[in-house]
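Quick start: read one record
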Amino acid sequence: MKKEILNFLTIGALLGTVVLSSCSDDNGGDPITDPEEQEDRFITVAGALMGDNPGDGNGGTMVYSVTKEEAQNPDTQISVYTEGFGVKSNRTAHLQSSEDGSVLFNIAYTGDNGGEFSRYTVNGGGSFAQSDVSVNISQYAGTSPRWLKLYDGDKTGVALNVANIKANNAPAGSTPNASFAYYRGVATVLALDLQESLIKSYQQYEIPLTNEEEAAGHTIFRLDGSVLNKAEDKLIIGTWMRKYNTVTGETEGDYDRLGTKSVVVDYPSFANPTVITSTVSHGDNSGYRSHYSYLGDDGNIYQATERDPAGSHILKINQSNEYDNSYVFSLNQALGLTGVTIEAWQYAQGGKAFALISHDAAVNGFIVWMDLNAKTASIVDIPYDVDLEFNQYQGFVVDGKNVYIAVTPVGKNGNIYIMDSNTGVATKGATLVNQPGNHYIGIF
């Protein structure tokens, strides 16, 4: 899983430069009022077992829960792989949790039970009681749906899929001809009732781009990373774009990318899909098994990008559900690096957030503290290991001003870290005991 070995002294010098050049938190002198913490809650950690290769996470998912006090204590030993509970999934489970940490939600990913939604009551340790009621959404969204829980009081999950991408909706196996107009798939947007474990509603439709974009072979390949706007009348959905050669029908890996696009649909009907485009970034914004867009305290939506030739950005979508192209926050520029990719991130409060990143000059991942208002970023000061990767990371817990993050290099022990979103300072918590080839992928 290593990209290349970088001289250790070079990494150290680079980190020193990044930390020293980053901007400090400046709230204009206003006193910081910390959001309220929960008095007590379970903290559930998730670990991915290796499949064929170390760090691929394709061997299934284990979970284990501790109290918040235990999670904060470095003397706590958590061994998810020997004492944990295996949630349903042929590969890496797609997990979400209730706001108070008492319930875990899962949709199995691929395999015979792919698309099956389950609820688990968190009882502590390796005890997770599965609800008697489950529902399988595979007939609507396939056996490998992308899904996230909305921030609506644990009421709704949204599953997404794009299937059967082909030219002009021609029969399978046919190739483009002189009448070629577009490549499109059929998108599914499905609402899950998280409390009753049932399908509330769904819509299926094609989502066209502009005539010019489609004539060049561009199409929406994947949907994910949905978020509800402040008015709760629109759902903003992230996209992963793809381009086909209009003559051969083959996908193209190297092409001029379009601006970052989101799909906006009415909520809760999911009707009237429209596409909005950012001119700030040319990356995708669907994320990878985690939230990639958040509703900020100011009522705007903040969205990360990936696969951007100019490095990841944080974009802003205003309360009119349009991109604010005057807001420019480049992680390359803020960190003084190249090739910055946000693997996962979490909005905390007051415009503060944490991102798990990779970049061109190192083989391992890093944690970055961000001020979205000041558009500044700095690497958090914790020990980093060359085998630390965040490419499959899923879950964070926000508790008041604090954000809990699991940090384990592949096959090595690590720790829970508690990040202060006001200062960017990390405190070491419980020890995460690892096994060869495995890694921890989230906290819920």
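Residues 119 and 132 are 9 Å apart (CA to CA).
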